[in-house]
Amino acid sequence: MLTCSFCFLISVSVLDTNSVGTFGTCLLGFYQLFQIMEVSSEISSAESTSPSASASVPPSLRDGEQYHVFISYSSTDYQWTHALIDQLESCGLQACYHERDFTPGRTVLENMSDCINESQKVLLVLSAEFLRSRWCLLEANMSLFRDCLERKPIIPVMLEPDVSVPLHLCHLTYLEVSDPAFLKKLLRVLCTPNQQLQGSTVVPFQPPSIYNGKALQPLTAVNEEGLNKWDCGQFSDMEVPDQLRLVIEDINRYREAVRIINNIALWKKDDMKYILRELQKAIGQANVILSEEKVLMGCRSNSKIHLVYVSLDGCKQKFAETFGEDGGAEEMFQRAVLFFSCGYACCLGKRHFPFPQSASVGHMEGKVCFCQYVSQQLSRGEWN
């Protein structure tokens, strides 16, 4: 492995900026760190003090519409949600929710699909329990809802702090219940006609580039409870977890990657740093496989694996342009994934990179691309 590392460093070092062109700015030491951009709120608060001010007039219901908003929530959040529904309906909005408006004798999926179609907008009350139940149901049947959801503005409401926003919602503007102007902002968007919201950050299913670099919910070892700090966690390969169902196309790739991690052979079980290094090496091998699915793994502990959705296509193309087909471009790229992808995934997942910001442009809008990370780590003499 040291030999491979040395060869990779020499191969990169001998390149001059004339031979690499644009790639030189990414890979050969021009420092880059875009500030990770949080979704900024695009819903301005109403200036009036009353939630039912004249500015918040419900839009007219058109043919085929029965409700202004369909509200999906977990039963554990019933009390808070119904207090909100009472406030919305007191302002003249027609709300739809499952206890009252689902048709008996029909499946939950059929009812949800019909209610979304008959509503102008969709409001999701995001909590840990919602992500475990309702959102998993939506994700597992996304093909059923995609056609109707892509035509409906979605308003994610953060009921609990630090909830991991699902991948296909992470680019949307969300409202926080803790915000003193929460109700005013919510009424403003609910009372704005849909055609005026086109192109805003409440319209879902934007191009995949919007999701690039987003962290997913991490994988937790199945043996986390009772796991000794000198052992490696074991991760389930029975099925693709919920947070990856819409990302992973080839389940066999995922299983192969997880089995690489689960089959680590440890020789020094009393050395925690050694164990973590071995786990990171195995994750690098797994990432060679998973990068084809636009997923990378990373780890900083023996029981949890970070997951990020990230396309390396632009960086891979720069390797090809730099090294050429006959110059071992594919081998160089695979070697970079092997050595650097685990650390890169951790940095993306934690939204923190261990080097200063630069103004050079990479292959990921607003974030550090993979070849920029490789360049920085090489310049620092780091190999992870």
UniProtKB/TrEMBL annotation:
KW Kinase (keyword) present: no
UniProt KW NADP keyword: no
GO MF annotation terms: signaling receptor activity
Gene Ontology biological-process entries: inflammatory response; signal transduction
GO cellular component, one term: plasma membrane
Extent of the signal sequence: 1-19
PANTHER family (UniProt xref): MSTPROX-RELATED, TOLL-LIKE RECEPTOR
Name under which the protein is recorded: TIR domain-containing protein
